[in-house]
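Box 3.1. Reading complex inputs
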Amino acid sequence: MIRTIANRFKWNAARYFTQTCSINSDASLCQNAASLKVDQLADIKESELKEISDPLKFPDYFGVRKLFRIKDLFDARIHYGHKDGTLDPNMKPYIFGSRLGHLIFDLDKTAEMLQDALNFTAHIAYRGGIILFVSHCPQHTLTVENAAKQAGEYAHAREWDFHIFTNSEKVYNGVTRLPDLVILLSTLNPQMQEHTAVKDAAKMCIPTIGIVDSNSNPNLITYPIPGNDDSPAAVQLYCNLFRDAILLGKSKKPMEVY
Amino acid sequence: MASSRLERIGNIYSRVRGLLRSGAMKPEDKPIWYEVYEAFPPKVEPQYGRKASEITIHPIFYPEDIVRAKFYERFGSPGLISLANNEYPTPCQKFLDRYKEMEKGFSDENELFEAVAKVMEEEKSVPESVSSNQPDNGTSMASMFSSAVSKSQPQPKINVGDLLTEK
């Protein structure tokens, strides 16, 4: 078992050691050195090999940073918030300023938080987690459901049944597995109240990623993303980014150990 | 398997960590997201009752806004502006560009404004100026309404009684 893994690294190791040996002109010496080192590699434990290539050790293993630039956020009108009067006090740190009463988000902060959220999404997808897209805005139902389909994950873009998470076994009449991540494209329902999924996911210890607009409360959301959640262009961009992050996460297969 | 549904106490990570430490949740039941959260915690820890910070939201103003205000006062709005189309500059943007070009020659703002306005009017890049002295000129609602009222024909007076008795 360990030998097969060592074989994979063999040519790499041999190349490395022959490179270091290139200073000496004696070829036979190099070859002996290479073969010695390869046998030692075989002794490396499986667990150590796993640690070397553990995705969690890398700051951006799936390359989610390349998925968007700040100009893309600007073009999709993500920096537009609502008006001064509807501002939720908890959103103040993320607001750049107010342009004649209209709040503008600080896209630098949004970009940073969006990167964190996408990275988290990719890792969860890599580990085989179930991801649920949630949105209650009827205008964006199709966008959200399509994104979930393309990502191979799930969406709930209709009216929220209250006991889906908290009493799932009764509602679905059987053993259920709850999602491992909930992505909220809008944390408000059409009645402008906080979406039930925010509180319920926090209750059931499910991490949430949510697009919080200037009139939403980000406190209960694990990875909030301050930004516009009303423009169709903005929602389309978010859906595309999350779908791409999930597909990136799924594309990297875990290292096979026989 | 134990769980904790107290969303207002701590956050999901602190609760699950507590469950694991106390032994209520077995290590094999550890949720998928736990290690990912530990490796990449959110920049701001989610907490239900966190008090909002005392930050004042500053209004966003640019030095060009004064010129823009004067422009709209003088010339009014051109009507429809497509915000999505970045190709063609609006009359106000053209005015601002010309203003910046001619800025060095003048010290007084008003003089500079008048000079730029004159140049642009000659080039006909701006709509005709809207001023209250000329109600017939211009495309503002008020002027159109007043001109319509003055032009309208006097309505023939209809006697409803006559209409009914004619039958």
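In summary: The interface with chain B takes residues 56-57, 84, 87-90, 92-93, 95-100, 103-104, 112-113, 116, 119-120, 123-124, 127-129, 166, 180-181, 199, 202-207, 218-224 of chain A (CB under 8 Å).
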